[in-house]
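Quick one, probably user error.
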């Protein structure tokens, strides 16, 4: 199981979909993504960052995507399922506990929900107090930048503090055509058929000391 170091963001991150804050240049992104259950396949460039602060948890993805598959957001969150998207899951590691899922399409459409193993979904869930996100399209793909406020993390049973560790999943669905068959991209590849709703698909994130 891999461990990602989440560094403390000493200056505010503006959630605007532009990764121009100093932290993005100072901290190398996570790039160790693989095709789920097929390490021989080349992965389109996928970068992720996770930062924490006294006010919340920030995360970002930068994806190269030569075959955009997206449609305008609607009130039906499940329409995200057939689109290019990135995903962040959070879980405290207790097999009986809920885990929390944020999926954001390259169009800006969102599907947020919580679940229990195995695949017991509650699609009505949304982060407590709301959350902020912005997707921007680039010349060769898209960028997601987002922030979950401290209140939302605490409502999930988490704690933002130096030295704390929790479980995290970082994933990407890459489609060639809208509602087609995706390539499943993951940080942690447990070797089974692509299914991110299992404990083995989660790594860990550790919150580093303040500098």
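Nope, works fine. Designed sequence:
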């Amino acid at each position: 199981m891999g461990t990602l170091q989440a560094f403390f963001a000493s200056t505010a991150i503006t959630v605007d979909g532009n990764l121009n804050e100093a932290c993005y240049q100072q901290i190398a992104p996570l790039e160790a993504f693989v095709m789920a259950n097929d390490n021989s396949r080349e992965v389109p460039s996928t970068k992720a960052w996770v930062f924490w602060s006294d006010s919340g948890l920030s995360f970002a993805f930068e994806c190269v995507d030569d075959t955009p598959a997206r449609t305008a957001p609607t009130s039906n969150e499940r329409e995200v399922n057939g689109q290019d998207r990135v995903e962040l899951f959070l879980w405290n590691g207790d097999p009986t506990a809920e885990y929390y899922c944020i999926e954001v399409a390259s169009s800006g459409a969102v599907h947020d929900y919580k679940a229990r193993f195995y695949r017991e979904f509650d699609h009505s869930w949304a982060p407590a107090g709301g959350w902020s996100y912005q997707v921007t399209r680039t010349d060769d793909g898209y960028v997601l930048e987002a922030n979950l406020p401290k209140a939302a993390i605490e409502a999930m049973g988490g704690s933002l503090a130096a030295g704390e560790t929790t479980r995290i999943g970082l994933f990407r669905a890459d489609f060639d055509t809208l509602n087609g068959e995706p390539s499943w991209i993951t940080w942690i590849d447990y070797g089974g058929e692509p299914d991110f709703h299992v404990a083995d698909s989660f790594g860990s994130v550790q919150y580093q000391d303040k500098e």
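Residues 3-68+81-207 form a domain with the Immunoglobulin-like fold (CATH 2.60.40.1190).
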